[in-house]
Amino acid sequence: MNDSIFGRTNALLGSEAMKKLHGSSICLLGLGGVGSYAFEALVRAGIGRLIIVDHARVDITNINRQLIALESTIGRYKTEAASTRATEINPNIKVECHNLFIDDTNIESIIPDDVDYIVDAIDSVSSKLVLAEFANKKSIPVISCMGTGNKLHPEKLMIGDISKTSVDPLARVMRTELKKRGIKKLEVVWSDELPLLKGDDLPLDKDGRKVPASISYVPSAAGILMASVVVNRITGNA
User: Fold this and answer.
1) d(CA 231, CA 46)
2) Which spans in 23-152 are helix H?
3) Mean pLDDT, to the nearest integer, of 109-131?
């Protein structure tokens, strides 16, 4: 490992903490506005191995908020664009890509039992629940992001247990479904900001489906918060 890459991080955390980061394995699901920034922060912090999962390709509509979305990456799988970027930052990092949609038929084959942390930056409730159940069964720590669309204030983001959330519709559904599954705790990044748009005000995608409106700095802030939880827990600075 080229110590000059992480020299300033080493000065802050110390050599033992850096060894823990270099030796850690993280699984990150979702490389959108939240996940792409979480990925970048983890790479630049010195994580040694990242398993990344996303079924989508980069689309022009991603450019307003997704770090890996550029004119030059449109049409590429998000995982591939992220992996290329990661190795340009740290040539020694190991990145494992899965271009698929996570569900209960494939999760066991994708996430190894020895992974140190799971970062949930996916939008699908069904996939988030599959992931929460898997992590609970395997006793793997997980940080999960709730809704960041239709919001303008990153300073309202916070970290806490899902039982403490309010306002957020995604968190409300997750609380109900987790309770049915006997899962009592889930650490989340969430915001109590009221959405600017909802219902008929929401924009439509090319298939005529309603999608959240978004801006560059709210999802990104959530992703960086998620990365901070992972790094601080691994290094004992939580």
Assistant:
1) 9
2) 35-45, 78-89, 107-110, 125-138
3) 97
